[in-house]
User: What shape does this take?
Amino acid sequence: MNKPSRIYCKACNRKILLLVILLISFSNAYNKDNPEDVLDPETQKCLDCHAGMRYTLTDPVTGDMASLKMYDELRIDPHLYVRAAHGGFACTDCHSLDYEIHPHPISVKFEFQYSCLDCHGGDEHFARFNFEKVEEEFNVSIHGNHYIENFSCWSCHNPHTYRLTVREGGRIVDIVAYNNSICLECHGDISHYAVLIERQLTNMLSKHEWLPNQSLHFRKVRCIDCHAAVHYDILVAHHVLPASEAVRNCVECHSTNSILMASLYKHKTVERRSRFGFFNSEITTDAYIIGANRNYYFNLASIVILGLVLLGIAIHATLRYIHYRQRK
Amino acid sequence: MNKKKLYLYPLWLRIWHHVNAVLMIVLIFTGVSMQYSDPNYPLIRFDIAVDLHSTSGIFLTISYFIFLLGVLFSSIGRYYLVKTEGFFTAFARQLRYYLFGIFRGEKSPFKVTQERKFNPIQLISYNVIMHAITPFTFITGWALIFPETIVLNVYGYSGIMLTSLVHSIAGFLISIFLVIHLYVITIGPSPTANLKSMIHGYHEAIETEKTEEIEK
Assistant: This one.
C-alpha cells in the first residue's frame, strides 16, 4: 500500500515544483507586461478613467453620478503608453495642471500644446534626432501647415503611443507595419482624414493598382519610402511629397543604388557597408529586392562561367573550321 | 555516301520546341534586365520586364506540362530513358568525340536512329534541363509570383531571397544550356542541317552503312 502512495507523492511533488516554476515565470512575465507596475501613481490616477471604455462623472454640486462613454481619442491604452517614447512621463508633465480638477474645467481645452522643438530643440542630448531639420522638412512637405491648417507632429506621432521603431531596430516587416499603420490611420479612415482636410479619401488599393505585387510592397516597404524625399541628415524622411511626385520608377529601388538604402535600411546601412557578398546585404535578412540584391561572388562566377563557355565554343568552332578546311 | 532522312520531330514537338525557345529567350532577357536593372542603362523597362517575365513563366509552365505529357504518353518518351549499364563509358566516348574526334573527321560514335535520338551527352543534359532545372525554375518562379507562400526566414536569411537565388541560378544554368545548345546544333552534316530538322521534322544523317527506310 505504501509503495504506490510514495510513488504518487514523488510525482505529485514534481508536479508542484513544475507548477511553482511556471507560476514564477508567468508572474515575472506578468510583472513585465503589467503597466500598473510601471506607471507612476499620478498617471495611474488619470488612466483610471482614460483607460476604460466608460467612466463615472460626479456632479460636485448635486453629487449626481453618470456613467459616460470614453471617446476613442481621449482613451489611452496603458500597455501602449508605457512602451511609447514618452511613456515615462506623468500626464501633467505635458498637460495642464487643471486636469487634476474633476470634472475637468473648460480651461483644459485651451491648454498650451507643446511641439517637438519646445522640448527637443537645441538640446545636445537629442542632437542625433536633428529635430530642427525634421521640422524644416515637415514645413515644406505636403503635410506642412501651408497645405493643412491643423496638422502637427502629433497628427502622426501620437504622443501616448508613438515608438521609435526604426532606432529600436527589430524586424523590417514590423517597422513597416507600424509606420504604415500611422499613415493609414488617416489615409485609410475617412473619420480621421476628414478632421484634417475636406477632400475625398483616395482608395489606396485602386490608386496603387499599377504596382506589381501590391500586397508584398505594402508589407515590405513603408509609404514614406516612395512618398517622401530623403534628407541625408535625418534618419526618417519627413518631406512628404504630393502624390504626383512619389516614386513610380521601379529601378529607383530595384537597382544596386536603391533609394531604400537611404531610407528604410538607412539605420542598418550606416552601421556597415561591404563591397563584397550581397549588394545592399542589409535587406537580405528581411526581404529580397530584384536588382538591388545582386551578389558580388555570384555575379563574378556567372561572368566567368559564361565567358569560359563562350571561349570554349569559339575555340571549338575555330578548330572545327580549320580541320574542315584542311580536309577539303 | 548516302544521305538518309528520319522523321524524328513530329509537328506538335516542333511547335512545342519553338514556343518553348521563344519563352525561354524572353525569360532570360527579362530576367537579366531585372537582375541587372540600372536607372541609367535600362535594357527593358522594369515594370514591362516584370509583366513579361511573369506572363512568359506562366506559359512556360503550361508548355512544360504539355511536354511532360508527350514524354509520358507518346513515343518520344523512349528517347529520354537512360540505361545505366555502360552509360559512363558511352558518355566518355561521346565526350572524346566532341573534344578530339570531331576535328579528325571521325564519325560520331552514336548514330541517330529511329530508336535513339540523343547521344549520351545530349541525353543527360536534356534530362537534367527538362526534368530538374526547368521545374526548379518555374516552381520558384510561381513562389515569387505568390511570395506569401514562401517561408519568411530561413536561418537568418529571407526565404524570398533564397528562393530568388535558386531561381536565378536555375535560370542562369538554362541560359548556359541555351548557348551551348545553339552551338551544338551546328554540328551535323552541315551547320544548318539540325536547325532545318526542327523546321521540317526530318533528321538528316550521313549514312555510310546500310541505308534505312524513311519512317514517319
Observations:
- Residues 208-216 of chain B have pLDDT under 50 and may be disordered.
- The interface with chain A takes residues 34-39, 42, 46-47, 50-51, 54, 98, 102-105, 145, 147-148, 152-153, 156-158, 160-161, 163-165, 168-169, 172, 175-176, 179-180, 183, 186-187 of chain B (CB under 8 Å).
- Helices of chain B lie at 11-35, 46-73, 87-99, 120-145, 159-184, 193-200.
- Chain B has six helices and four strands.
